[in-house]
């Protein structure tokens, strides 16, 4: 049983879970998946294709004939982490194929690690397969190598990320994701719905909808059936009977049309919205819409329709030029917005980002001090909101059952980035994926504790 740490990086996916046995003589590939849930979905797709060709999947370096490292390039610290993972894979295994966001800069990788076998960019599945074939030829056994009906999943069986689009049309100065992953390309509605139906048929109880800009889904189509296709998709996903959680939703005006679906219970009353800051001048330097006051009006309107809505967001402190006044505006905005779940980055230069050239970069010690103050306020808000849940009865989904407790999540909690609810009595009969009612009897800064409500 582990409590949710307050400084968890909000850009990370859950740790991949590998549970596929290997047959004798089967060519086997290891996978290191770094970065966000979108990268985790890419890893799942690569491994699904490899499994279909008869490859086994190894959870460690020593059992693999070669290793794929799916990298992250979102921050310079993430790039360093990716280079470190590549170096570790080379040291432990020696045969390494690199893909993912950092793969968009092959010279950066080969300059540090010239012995890698191949480098491919993000979502270049065919090139990854070609590199694997060259390093480890396939040797399928059609009588043994059966692909799971839902493909290879790197998350627990009861929840799954559902990536609905790739790329982004925003031009935020601190971000190079559009340079690495390109402009917005939305998957066809039918393809997304078919994948979701298949996942639910195979036992998935929660669908986590992800993209770079979820609310823009389908707006890149020349001929689209409706002005905002995300509304049709949300409605159809909600009809499947699983929990549907919306991530990375920009607060466009049409987002308000999602809120009644939440109030009706069609999709979860949860929005993950990357506000990033609140001061108009900071937002302007970020090249983001400078409408913090209107955002507060939107939040109030959402809560009027769906009082139980949970709002999660991420913010950047210490952005170039951020004054103490601008930072205080952010703290005041957070006080008024009363967001339920908050993650925060200290600004970092990223090679290729336009924000690098901005004047008045903030010293590290001031960034750290502002991060501490920001998280202290966010923690106090979280603690008060959770304390208000004591004595209420809520639904939770079970993630893990151990001897001392069952680790669960409420509708207000996404995997890894939000809190947990722990049941430490009468939990022995529970299984991962169960959705049960719990009476909350204790609250902490980020987590809850409760007891099962017995069915009549």
TrEMBL record:
Pfam families in UniProt: Radical_SAM, TRAM_2, UPF0004
Cofactor: [4Fe-4S] cluster
Intracellular or extracellular location(s): Cytoplasm
Region (Disordered): 1-28
InterPro entries the UniProt entry points to: Elp3/MiaA/NifB-like_rSAM (IPR006638), Methylthiotransferase (IPR005839), Methylthiotransferase_N (IPR013848), Methylthiotransferase_N_sf (IPR038135), NA-bd_OB-fold (IPR012340), Ribosomal_uS12_MeSTrfase_RimO (IPR005840), rSAM (IPR007197), rSAM_horseshoe (IPR023404)
Broad enzyme group: transferase
Name this protein carries in UniProt: Ribosomal protein uS12 methylthiotransferase RimO
Top-level taxonomy: Bacteria, Pseudomonadati, Pseudomonadota, Alphaproteobacteria, Rhodobacterales
